[in-house]
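Q: Entry one of two.
A:
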Amino acid sequence: MASVKVAVRVRPFNQRELDLHCACIVEVEDKKTRLVNNKIAAGDGAESRERVKDFTFDYSYWSHRDGDQHFAPQVQIYDDLGTDVVSNALQGYNACVFAYGQTGSGKTFTMMGSQSNPGLIPRICEALFSSMAEGREAGTTYKVEVSYLEIYNERVKDLLRAGAPNDLHSLRVREHPKLGPYVQDLSTHLVHHYPDIQELMRRGNSHRTTASTHMNDTSSRSHAIFTVTFIQAKLQSDMPLETRSKIHLVDLAGSERADATGATGQRLKEGAHINKSLVTLGSVISALAEQAVKTSGKTVFIPYRDSVLTWLLKDSLGGNSKTIMIATISPADVNYGETLSTLRYANRAKNIINKPTINEDPNVKLIRELREEILNLKTMLQESGIFGLEANVEKGSLIAALSQKQAKEKELTDQWNERWSETHTILQEQKTLGLRKAGQGVVLDSERPHLVLIDDNLLTTGVTLYHLNNGMTTIGCLPTQDIRLEGGEVLEEHCIIYLQDGEATLESRPDAQCWVNSQFVDKPSRLTQGCVVVLGGSHMFRYNDPQEAARLRREGNKAHLNLSRLSFLSRSATDLVRSYDNLSGLVTLRNCCEGDRHARDGTSSGRGLDILEGDSHARA
């Protein structure tokens, strides 16, 4: 059991409040936040007692004036709140951080920050990858996936998926009987490094719905949920350990009054939907707070399904999550009503009790329970000192049960080891690859020497990349070869490429047809950046050595291989080769109508890495 942690942050005056010569009506001292109503005169009467309202929270941050002694910068917010999120994720708990407040109160700045002064989300993600780097040295394997959505006018939009404008807000919310609410068809993106997350955040933020209101020039007109799924697996004292954590980082749209924001038309409609979801959020918080203090056995109804926002945050509010709420407020007297409402909102949220549990893999949990039972059975056998027929029967049944459980435990452990061994191999393979958008195309980059298949088959819609092994890479038509090629006069064992000290050398088998830059290979031939390799007369490749290409770029080498010398090729193949002439260690897939999805759909196998159009099941 854990209560929701609540923090309040006071922002500086904005330009509008400075122009209006607003007075500061908020005071902060330790955990206490005080709100003063300047319209009520100070005195001794009952009315004057209503002039000051005090609230106590887990944290109260004064970020009003930079020069103040107790000023709270972005880094302090992270140190107090963000480090707990990272720690909880590493332990296997779900976590949620959401910012609530009126329009222009500093929610997005607290959560996202700026490039020079990052907020909670980028700091949490960066710290998570730093912790992963330390864990990998101890043998832990990690898998991290990211999704980013917004809720606009009660409809869900995938901020990381490319598509037609009419399809952007068409995702449906479903509920799994065990896993809870989820968004159907929401894209997830595998990330290996912190810069990958930075790029996804930048792309998602550029797609968010914003508009100008009287309160804020770039008001967020939607709720945004940035979700990091964090999976870790390791052996701890010879015991498998696998946990899955979900971190929801939520930037809510601003609560607002229509007259204060000057909303009309579409802005008024947006504000109505925003306020509806926030009212529902308030109702959920109130119901959960009432449930926490209720002593009778009567169940309190929680209206999660009254809005998409509360439905998706069901686990984070009263469920399996360690949750933090940050209430951002304006200190200006003109915003007294909104500020008081936010503080009351946050005060109710303090009473919510969640039930966080470590999200352990069911099979790993079963393995641990089986090992405990095996240990108990062994102890019973050792302590059994009874003799006679009945004792022998009892021992026999204990031995049979022990053997059965040992076999089951071994089977589950072997399956777990095999699964994570394959996952680790795939993740290591993908870490050497980099995918990025380039206009309407997708660029696939690799850090390792590789061959890129140049295919003149008109029915082929993808590009295949083959990494070379350190040492020896075998090529032929047998299934046992590292690179398997079919047809085109390819022998069972056609050739070998040796990669040693960063240099690749092709050695042809007797009677095998191999050419390098149109020269027939009858002795070991060194492969250089950009050279064209033809095997069996019909399989054409370009050899890329990223390190050599980088050296040539540094030296300013502008020379390119003249592929027109390959006169023995058919016209179509030669034209295709020319389309790859100016690539330096990169393969660009042009006119990719679903570039973002293809950047995700890469699979690694013995036949190379394929980027295929429409191959939705090829996801890593």
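Q: Entry two of two.
A:
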Amino acid sequence: MAMNTQGRPSRPLHTPDPGAYDDTFSGSKGLDQAEPLIFERQTYDKTGVDFEAPKGKPSRLGALERSDDLGLPGLSEPEAMRHYVRLSRKNYAIDIGLYPLGSCTMKHNPRLNEKLARLPGFSDIHPLQPQSTVQGAFELIGDLAHWLMTLTNMPTVAMSPKAGAHGELCGMMAIRAALDARGESHRRRVLVPESAHGTNPATAVQCGFHVDEIPANAIGRVDMEAFKAKLGDDVAAIMLTNPNTCGLFESDIREIADLMHEAGGYFYCDGANFNAISGRVRPGDLGVDAMHFNLHKTYSTPHGGGGPGSGPTVLSEALAKFAPLPFVIKDGDSWRMVEDEADAKAQGADPFGRMVAFHGQMGMFTRAMSYMLSHGADGLKMASEDAVLNANYVLARLKNVMTPSFDGLCMHEALFDDRFLKDTGVTTLDFAKAMIDEGYHPMTMYFPLVVHGAMLIEPTESESKASVDRFCDTLEALAGAAKAGETERFTAAPRFAPAKRLDETRAARQPVLRWTPPSTDAQAAE
């Protein structure tokens, strides 16, 4: 076995191919097929599809015309298909099992919504089409905006942000525009609790603000005394995640909002965890001035593949007129898009600018609208209640074998730390790797940073009691094995996955981001 820098087993040195098993001749194991990188096939002397050179047509590429081989392997159609199907079998997915990542809401999304998003009237339109030809799409955007405002009790929503962090940027830019309009450009300090999402301080800095961190108290919420001590006439806003990354509802949120407003600042709420409170709590009632949604978390889009995202941002009355261009309005019997500043000012708006070339993600809007219509108001409320119920069931099932980080009930996710692994020789990372051998994707590890060895579990509302019980049974058994001294079971894990234990430290510090062919030069003898 190769060893990593911590002295832990890495992958076996004699593994025939990356992603292959070392205990079979072929590298495959049953239905799990060994599959190297497509470049490692080294079949550069053939091509799957061959086109004849065009006759009598001069190249229009000029100096950009290709003069050498592409360097891509040539695969037949069956070979190419098998390559990608085999790779897909190495992925964990919500269609395979429970996805316990915390602060991510990796839930099942009905295929009906995918079907509706692929209707030609939504999927085949082009952003440069005449507006008269996309009236149905505009109406859907308007209807979705109405329901987002209804769910939050907020007067305006910017639909154009492309993702959660982009929505944060939208909200903070609106806050900056409002401060500048008030003649208070000296307010450039933003308070960020240490239990907020990591994008919050990054967004504040991106907007030209200075970040001032607020510590958490003993129960995982904002330390109110520390918060009050940091208020001043240079404070622009607070960026608070609620429910926070500890899976807890900020019980002092109304007081936080009131104190911030009294100090002349604004309240930005990170809505990434809105799946816990949608239909139950309206952020506008809590004093929130700006909040983004993650439609790809809360309202039905496959999440975790790197895109597409969508982060509509609701704004309070104090910020409404600063919403960015473009936006859709109902003008008589038809819909149209407001795209320039003069038109916006005629509507009583004063946009801070334009964030995107086009309006937003039509597929995301369609899925979200389909999700809302199929659930109804009572269904959205029940989804939030079931998400919280499932998380508290996990907390109740595991609190006697693992160590909850905080006392009492949680919201949509249960947070544990590594105290139950003390003196076992097993770390949070080892425990997570052992979960892979049991057929589960690990929970969120080492986050939030306020808890040592954190393990953050979010079962979501889409898991049945049977699937949650099976998951909890597995974690109970693993906790028992760790305490019983079965250390090697954890330090050698994963044993049953094609890719074995990696050196995470080296991978982080020396990432290999480009494949290069192996050298053909003869190696000198030592």
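A: Comment on entry two: The longest strand covers residues 235-241. Residues 203 and 445 are 23 Å apart (CA to CA).
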